[in-house]
Hints:
The protein is α/β, with parallel strands linked by helices and 347 residues long.
Amino acid sequence: MQEEIPQTTRAKAELLENGAIFVKNVKELPFIADHSTAGPTTGQKSIFLRFNDEKLVRLALVETQSKTPYTFDVERKMIQRNGIDWFPAKQVKSLLHCPEQTFLNLDSNCIYHCKFCATPVIQSHVSHRILKPQIVTRTIKRVANQGLSAVALTTGVFTSPTQSVKHMCRVVKAIRKEFGDSLPIGVEPFVQEEKHVDMLYDAGADEIKVNVETYDPEIFAIVCSEFDYKNNLKMVRYAGKIFGENRACSNIIIGLGEKEEKVDQGAEALADWGIIASLRPINLSPLIESQLQQALNNRATRPSAQRLITHAIKHKEILKEKGLDVTKFRTMCLKCTGCDIVPQRDL
Ligand code: SF4
Ligand code: SF4
């Protein structure tokens, strides 16, 4: 029987299909907008909205109303669609990158050139900085009593995968030393060898995200041309083995021109390994759109709301069958939920 989809889940999928919102009275926003150097809205300003007191969504800000059907009226705490009141909503404070978490990018530079990723594109515009362990712990302390429940770390690869993992391990150890077990730590490294996963586990990380990016080998060869598809999957699988069920997750991007069934097959393969996918709509940011479309012969498209829901329903069935539980995640995207339709959380 077809599952009944809550109205707010459909609404979230529609917001994600578009991905952007115009804010009326932007200066009146209670919290300043985020400006990320990693993740789906890299290089763009974005805000988090909780609407109908339920769903959380992260949307890029646009400066002109004509660029999106969605408007957030700050004063009336209302999302409007095509000028008509749609759902009551409140802006949610992002601690550092997302609500309740400090999700820090340890290095905003990267030697690689994944076609969907804006990090290498913005690096010439931002001053190169590597966040040292003591800067990270000081940053966490600043927000520790503002509802912080987790820490997450990502990084570009500044000299080599091993060096960036070693640096991440130093930061994990420093956080543990300073905060004990009070804060779960999630890590999102670039992993090329099994030892990278072992190093992070031994350093004390609780959860890991190693990204499949796309389960379609032909698309992978185009968008991650510097990496080996099979080795990447091997690393994802190994991360699941070492960290265990409900402690390893992985992005599969939707909208790179892959066959629809490839997304579900990827989610299923991951679930077989005890790993939960984040099915992530491609962000066609102006920073990467032309390089991505050129590489993919214009096949990249932001997925429709219906496509996001269809994959999420299938994913929910897969997770149930494999006995996996999204709600066990304490860090990173499966805890945050802002960018995706997350099974067991949104539907
Ligand atoms: S490895 Fe690829 S996805 Fe990761 S930061 Fe570098 S370019 Fe971006
Ligand atoms: S879902 Fe992930 S990428 Fe999106 S805002 Fe939350 S933590 Fe960041």
